[in-house]
Amino acid sequence: MADSDVRADKKVQTMTDHNVYDSDQTDDLPSNWGRWGDDDERGTLNLITAESRLRGYAELASGEVVSLAVPISPSLFAGGGPWPRSQVLSPPPVQQTMTYTGSPPRALSDVLLIYTHHVHMTHIDALAHIPLDGLVYPGKSLFETTRGGTINHGSTSAFTGGIVTRGILLDLAPGARLDAEYVIHAADLDAALERTGRSLEPGDAVVIRGGWRVREREDIDDPYPYFALDVIQWLADHDVSIIASDVGDRVLSKPGAEIPLHDVALARLGMPLIDGAEVEELAETADRLGRWAFLFVCGPMPVQNSTGVPVNPLALF
Amino acid sequence: MADSDVRADKKVQTMTDHNVYDSDQTDDLPSNWGRWGDDDERGTLNLITAESRLRGYAELASGEVVSLAVPISPSLFAGGGPWPRSQVLSPPPVQQTMTYTGSPPRALSDVLLIYTHHVHMTHIDALAHIPLDGLVYPGKSLFETTRGGTINHGSTSAFTGGIVTRGILLDLAPGARLDAEYVIHAADLDAALERTGRSLEPGDAVVIRGGWRVREREDIDDPYPYFALDVIQWLADHDVSIIASDVGDRVLSKPGAEIPLHDVALARLGMPLIDGAEVEELAETADRLGRWAFLFVCGPMPVQNSTGVPVNPLALF
Amino acid sequence: MADSDVRADKKVQTMTDHNVYDSDQTDDLPSNWGRWGDDDERGTLNLITAESRLRGYAELASGEVVSLAVPISPSLFAGGGPWPRSQVLSPPPVQQTMTYTGSPPRALSDVLLIYTHHVHMTHIDALAHIPLDGLVYPGKSLFETTRGGTINHGSTSAFTGGIVTRGILLDLAPGARLDAEYVIHAADLDAALERTGRSLEPGDAVVIRGGWRVREREDIDDPYPYFALDVIQWLADHDVSIIASDVGDRVLSKPGAEIPLHDVALARLGMPLIDGAEVEELAETADRLGRWAFLFVCGPMPVQNSTGVPVNPLALF
Amino acid sequence: MADSDVRADKKVQTMTDHNVYDSDQTDDLPSNWGRWGDDDERGTLNLITAESRLRGYAELASGEVVSLAVPISPSLFAGGGPWPRSQVLSPPPVQQTMTYTGSPPRALSDVLLIYTHHVHMTHIDALAHIPLDGLVYPGKSLFETTRGGTINHGSTSAFTGGIVTRGILLDLAPGARLDAEYVIHAADLDAALERTGRSLEPGDAVVIRGGWRVREREDIDDPYPYFALDVIQWLADHDVSIIASDVGDRVLSKPGAEIPLHDVALARLGMPLIDGAEVEELAETADRLGRWAFLFVCGPMPVQNSTGVPVNPLALF
């Protein structure tokens, strides 16, 4: 068979799935492209001001601190003997090896290897993480963005100064969990917001609880509650600055899934996402205190030019 | 020459330097071994209470946030073309490569490789980082601590819940910098504390500024201000919970140096250290506001069982 | 500006260069697609038989062994102290760190990090290394080939049994080097072959010397002798099984370059390439012995499913 | 409890096991320290000459090639989606990730991470791999050897030119396998050698088959045939240059095991070891051909200054 025939046969198989919200739906979907200029890299973080922080300070009362991150037990990429010591899920989010530091060792040291977007690890997605029709927020070409094999625009560089604002917990299933098949809509967020006794202000951070943990699913394709598109519109309407959640998009192994949190909130609104947050302790604390607003403080490891980094956001009460 | 003769000749060369504060000086040096029990892993973080945080909250006024970390520009361990693109200092603190994610890429992702104690990177030292006579705080054997090739005691696991307390900036050279040859004593800290108008309370975090940046030194052995031993006694007397600084110990390339911040404060007091902090912006902000006390918030990447991790501590005003 | 307008503007910038030999030139260029079936993964290695090896054995006479690989001095990704110790070109081909193995260390061990196609490292390219219009030899889709984030077809798996055959050195500039601007044509190979006193047989390996070392160039875009397209036709006509060379394609930093060794020999002929071979010692040995044919023996590190691995091919005389 | 009391209690726990053949047994055990000078780095490879290779050439007859390495299927350290795709033994010998190379990808490339002494991977041990009483062959201090965090003496640098000599297969259990509890003695090697119809000459390589595969054991401490000390004396008496085997030392998880192949042959004789060789196909080929001598050709990846590298030794018939 001539090469050209083979090529024609296979062409359809070369395309992976892509952001399904690009092409025709431009005018219907919320977008912040251009809102803060053509070179903007901070997206909805631009909505956070000193007033946002003062609003968060006003919520401080009793001194509790709750981490919104899942502790990660690293597996080893070397060491502990030259034989395998355990079985682990692969790839893992973090791997470690201790380094040789003399005999006797002057200090103990190590190296960490981090797979930045692993679903089992609480991490922040930078704005360049999800392209939209070959462009990244707010319209930079993929080519320019990735020139030199690193991220030149919309990277984690935008986060190095820290992210501090008022946070509100929207617990969608207080004291329980959503059904596995549940589709989350804007009305669910409204109901949860009402329970907090607060109104959202532009620049607030939102933490959403559905009561599920990705890492406890046996199979990546098991059912899992997820956001419908109108949730993203709700986030846009409220000018939320950043979202952390235990539920959001369904990450499926087959291509073609609709993932509006990534494909619309991140890619079009320029809203950083904190994936895989741990929210159970936050919900219990909020219930106990009878308060669902707090100071949200996130100091990401200040590595620039990356697509994401692990984070440990803290909720201060 | 018989093997035994060769071995006798070389024995003296097999020993690297060690913690010079171990052997005979036990009774003279400050120590917290046993203060919180034989299995304690939190060291001076035990001194932080809700009251510590409320004390920090009381300092909040205007909404500024200052990062105490150096932004890190990663070098590449692969990518950007199969040829070398630049010259870099090696080893670097962080390396990156972007991963293949389909054609076209569904998302942009990467891997980060982190050398946890690199002097050019703001990082937190876990208590196990510095052994003392073959033991780590508060007396666990090196063997048990490193069994399995990871850190089983006194690791970064103690930090995953976050570190939040009141912080005080001790600027040793306001608007200037210390001389390269300066040796810092307790009296210098007293003077700086007085300028803050605050008294230190047990559990407070201390940030110290000498006006120097490790990463700007040409050669690791260039002179650099450092702490004398009495500074450590001062930290112990004030029951400081954690210290971040731009100066502290001199890291020298030749063994045998006295490094009391690591060898006494960390190893004996169980005080976590934040090495290589960036404090210039903090000092400028404090000067401008006329306030040197703030809320200190640190949410380290929650990787357990490691000797240290990069951090981005935030000072909230 | 509406998103669609921005997208239209940028589209042209999203395309990187591609294999310029794909589209229209199919019928004019040499190709082995389909010659050994639609699922073939060995390409021109199929031409090597026991007879090829016997032909190589017939060349053995005096017992010399010459390595065709550049020794690699790894840089460190950690260790040797927590400060940078040197300046290195980045990314480097190989990085090392020694691992912690107890106190005192029971054994000394390390980890190596290898960037498989680094131009300063002698390595073998697997057939999947260069796609042709979204397909890899002999017509598998990129999608299928890279499913699961590894190489499922045309990978280094084809090399794990070793590559042993007769080898012929074609020294294009005996005792000298080609001009920097020289374009190498089939006639140059014919002349060099004549000097060897041998005829090429199907299955032979060819080693080509131009007298240049990639790693000695200051800048990747400095002039460097390279193959014209007719050299590839010559390799095809002679049914060469594998090629190792110090010259071949010009690797340029700007896209669009014509690289027929990779884009035609590898991608269309299914001919594995050994890039960045070290051939000076081979040439000197051949001259001294007055023999340019030898037994070519290559035992690549048997890692499967990769795009390439470092190699150390040996020429036995 | 005062620190000094704690330290006394724990001292005995700080020592890991060490090379049990060091102290008093010097004069009874075979050693090559000093035989080739105090700065020698090649050990028993010094015994290989052109004559060794000619002896190997004389065995060539029919053109078969057998690899003595286990093919390695790498696991992923990133890629294939941001979720874990499989369960693997950890740490694994090799990990891979494919790198981002543009959209569409100009080429497919990857990075490999190699744990050099993993028992499931065929690898060569450099002479510095096993210290002897704080010294490495032929008497260099550990301190000097590891200065700068890399291997300065007795490293893989000695192997970059390739290792080519005659090889002899000693099949200890033709057509069968040794009992799990079998202890291998010199007499077993004599019997196997006799079956080959050859005498060993200084400089020959020896490949030993017991019929076991490390990687097929469920637990590292399951019984496994191993060498008694007199096997090492036999290797010394015959001036073997290098040994590859499927059996040899028992690698146990608890310290204190006697491992004479590593602790005496490698550390005292300066004999490089190829651990974890795959010998079944070699034995079958030898049986079929009725010949157990061959040309042994090993071209290790030419990475210098390491403790070991993966290898793919080839046996040519």
From TrEMBL, chains A, B, C, D:
One of the record's GO molecular function terms: arylformamidase activity
Basic and acidic residues composition bias: residue spans: 1-12
Annotated Pfam families: Cyclase
One GO BP annotation of this record: L-tryptophan catabolic process to kynurenine
Protein name: Cyclase
Provenance organism: Subtercola lobariae
Coiled-coil segments on the chain, per record: none
Region (Disordered): 1-26
